[in-house]
Write a structure and sequence with these properties.
Two copies of one chain form a homodimer. Helices cover 42% and strands 21% of the residues of chain A. Chain A is of the alpha/beta class. In chain A, the strands form three sheets. A six-stranded mixed beta sheet of chain A has the order 4-3-5-10-6-9, with helices on both faces. In chain A, strands 1-2 form a two-stranded antiparallel sheet. The first copy, chain A, has a two-stranded parallel sheet with strand order 7-8. The first copy, chain A, starts with 13 loop residues before the first helix and ends in a 5-residue tail after the last helix. Chain B binds a DNA duplex through helix 3.
DNA sequence: GTTTATTATTAAGAAATGCTAAATATAAGG
DNA sequence: CCTTATATTTAGCATTTCTTAATAATAAAC
């Protein structure tokens, strides 16, 4: 019975501190034990062990009951503080579990954050003011990197060609991609399509567009690039080239673009992605339901 | 695996919180386990149990190590606070054990506090400034009552006739009691002693005096009473009667009394008394040594 | 006084908790 | 593919902590 390794800190437990508080606030130990729902024997043994670990005698007999020694005052105050903080922690953890509180680092591409799910995100934010929602808007590639690296918890982006084993992906929206041309060329024949302005190399959407055009045998020479769809639309208006965009992003501004055909060239699939190693956060699950427009 | 009685508070332990802090401040769990002096397996199991009790997942895998989830921040801060407070408590308890700190509620009769041990009490107080020494000066009877009742820890008084089983008594000083008479009667014969002024009924010293005089066949008619020896001495000076006092209390003032004989009438024994149920407080033991003039 | 009722502690066995050591994943680097 | 480093799981053992039952101590009642 001595210090085993390096008796740095005594291994007190919250339960022992509760025993102490109950013994301090009840006249008899029998009453305290009943309040705690244990036998008086358990209380005695627990308090004896607490005294041994603190290294001080805290009680002395007075008549047929035990009373706190004056020295115990400090220990009692310590116990009160720790128990109070533990209670706070418990409430907080409960809120976390129920999803009424928590933190979500959410990354989304602009089309989702600004157009398709803007109102759902706002609604979620208003319904759960205690959820600390942090929104990052960026292209799909960087979002996925941040997700893998651990600096994001949930990403809404264009479906990647391959998805890492660590990630769980789920399609929640499909979006048509239409062809837009400068005004004077709107009615021209297929063989004269282009040149093109589009998203930069590495963009998921550009990969999808390139693949669709290749399937039609159309060359895809890109002469100007931007990650901002508004910029691409403006380039088309200026006659710099053709582009392919979701209508939601081509129709913005005072001079919306008109597609050369109503039929989409192709479509892109938008997905929700999260790390499979991260357990299901209830708050995040609620946000996912909002984004999928499933409301309980 | 459900709430057994009334899952009020999770039974977290200081050790589990130390595990958490070690895991948070080391890159790998292997390193954290080594720092704690346990096997990585113990660390894993301990942290798993901690997560279960808090009810939240705190870690997630990142590559081949585990990292804290953002949610764990609050739990981590809780752990830091509790561990820090526990450290403080440990230091305080150590000081208590070593007697360099603590509280002593000390009761003494005036002769001891003012005359015989005044310098020792002052010296102790100066040597151990962190010991909270509370001095109560009162007659022996009330001091013993307060000791039994628990509002004093140590009493220095006149030896009582019978001492309760709950108390431990120890003689540490013997004090002669001399007879003092008004000046004109100093040389008179024994048969004309008195009348007397003395301590009130119930006083330990008065009981001793009465007993000694009775043994000599001298009547002991008390015509005036006071608990204050200075008052008794003054009464003698005023010719109100004879008295019996320890010389230390008769020699005070500008006009010290002269005993009728150098030989003491009797003597009173002064004792140190403490509750037997109260364990030996190191600080109190040190004070007792000072009072017994045993200095290590 | 003696008895009775209440409270606290101790003893003994059962359940739980927590550890080590060994075996089994999992990930990174040749 | 193999090796190394890390983390977890499993199994067995030791410790801790509980309950029940017996004992001790005390106050109150008779």
């Amino acid at each position: 019975m001595s210090d085993k390794k390096e008796m740095l800190l005594p291994n007190l437990s919250v339960q022992q501190l509760e025993y102490l508080l109950a013994a301090a606030s009840n006249k008899t130990r029998a009453a305290a034990a009943q309040q705690l729902g244990v036998t008086p024997s358990a209380l005695t043994q627990g308090l004896t062990e607490l005294e041994r670990r603190v290294g001080l005698t805290l009680f002395e007999r007075k008549g047929r009951s035990t009373v706190l020694r004056p020295q115990a005052k400090e220990v009692l105050e310590y116990a009160r503080r720790v128990v109070a903080e533990t209670k706070d922690l418990t409430y907080w953890a409960q809120a976390q579990r129920e999803g009424t509180s928590g933190q979500i680092r959410f990354g989304a591409i602009d089309a989702i954050a600004v157009h398709h799910r803007a109102s759902e995100i706002r609604e979620f934010h208003e319904s759960f003011p205690n959820v600390d929602l942090r929104l990052t808007v960026a292209p799909s590639g960087p979002l996925l990197e941040a997700l893998l690296e651990g600096s994001l918890d949930l990403v809404a982006c264009v479906e990647p060609e391959v998805v890492s084993e660590d990630l769980i992906s789920e399609v929640f929206l499909e979006e048509p991609l239409l062809i837009y041309a400068p005004k004077e060329k709107t009615t021209k024949a297929n063989q004269n399509w282009g040149p093109w302005v589009s998203f930069p190399q590495g963009s998921h959407t550009r990969r999808i567009i390139a693949s669709a055009l290749a399937a039609l045998g159309v060359s895809y020479e890109v002469t100007a690039e931007s990650n901002q769809p508004e910029v691409l639309a403006e380039m088309v208006r200026l006659g710099l080239g053709w582009t392919v965009l979701p209508p939601a992003q081509a129709n913005t501004g005072i001079d919306p673009l008109i597609p050369i055909k109503k039929k989409p060239l192709t479509k892109r699939r938008l997905v929700l992605i999260r790390r499979s190693s991260a357990p299901l956060d209830p708050a995040m699950q609620t946000l996912v339901n909002y984004l999928k427009k499933i409301e309980p």
